[in-house]
Amino acid sequence: GFKCGIVGLPNVGKSTLFNALTKTAAAQAANYPFCTIEPNVGDVAVPEPRLKMLAEIANSAEIIPSRLQFVDIAGLVKGASKGEGLGNQFLANIREVDAVAYVLRCFEDDDITHVEGRIDPVADFETVETELMLADLESLEKRRVNLEKKAKGQDKEAKATLLLVDRALEQLRKGKPARTAEIAPDEEKAWKGLQLLTTKPVLFVANVDEASAAEGNKYSDQVFEEAKKHGAKAVLISAKIEAELAALDDEEAAEFLREIGLEEPGLNRLIRAGYDLLGLHTYFTAGPKEARAWTIRRGALAPEAAGVIHTDFEKKFIRAETISFDDYVALGGETAAKEAGKQRIEGKDYVVQDGDVMHFRTGN
Ligand code: GDP
């Protein structure tokens, strides 16, 4: 599955947020048991209002959302890249995630110590990212020595890798994350292979006090501005409120949300943002048994999409009968869409679109 890491300084609200995420996931998934893979990994359902609409039209007995994993990565402090705190463990954990959500403290509370003794979410972001940059810098400088030796011989791959390493180092030495380097499409694979921390896509999470959950505050404004500078998305959330919401049943939660002026739990926005960040989207299958959302990479072709259902389907793919979500709903289901000529027969070069309702035909 796809993993999004929750990263930040101590006492910013990471665990509160993580616990709310896993509690909500446990509560909402009666027919899809919540599984704790490891104590710090939570497997959550991606909120998808379109699924319910499909299930009603198709008369589905069950609704099965797609899933996303969040990993609570504790232990980052200044000096982590030099092994301070849980330094090395922290870095190992973060290497394994596909994207990073920076949780930034945007609430004041004299009872809760801030490790730096002040509330400054942008400075906190810089502290965290600096540790990641230092870790990348160090690991690349180590690797470079060996690569340079190999590149002096006839090792073409080493030569190509060395060029990429130097491009990353150039950014890092300027104090910029490696993701700011320019990478050509045909270099993407080798670039990913470097497994750097600062090439992962990032998301800013502004954790505000309860009173600022709907409108934000001066700190969260700073976070949104900073995110914009990096071309990244920011999500406004109050971990405290999310923790309270997670303990309520649906009706109570809806009432509570109305009172504080929120349309939906902040966690839904966070989960969706994580999904976007990972470059994912959704196609559906719908029938009397179940209406189900499936996660694929944006740009995935039909056979790859079929392979998410069953690995065999990718090899045995023949065609995909496809109806767009809008047509499916507007016409009132598969049969009507077919009669209206809105069911397309797509082949193996078809790029699956977000919201496609699909049937795969496979051979032997
Ligand atoms: P972590 O170290 O980043 O995992 O932080 P925790 O989630 O353990 O939170 C540290 C403390 O801050 C706990 O006592 C939380 O209850 C508190 N906290 C978290 N979010 C908020 C918030 O939005 N408002 C207030 N007042 N306290 C919060």
UniProtKB/TrEMBL annotation:
CDD domains: TGS_YchF_OLA1, YchF. Residues 130-157 form a coiled coil. The keyword Iron-sulfur does not apply. Signal peptide: none annotated. SUPFAM superfamilies: P-loop containing nucleoside triphosphate hydrolases (SSF52540), TGS-like (SSF81271). Residues 279-362 form the TGS domain. It comes from the Bacteria. Belongs to the TRAFAC class OBG-HflX-like GTPase superfamily. OBG GTPase family. YchF/OLA1 subfamily. This is Ribosome-binding ATPase YchF. It comes from Parvularcula lutaonensis.
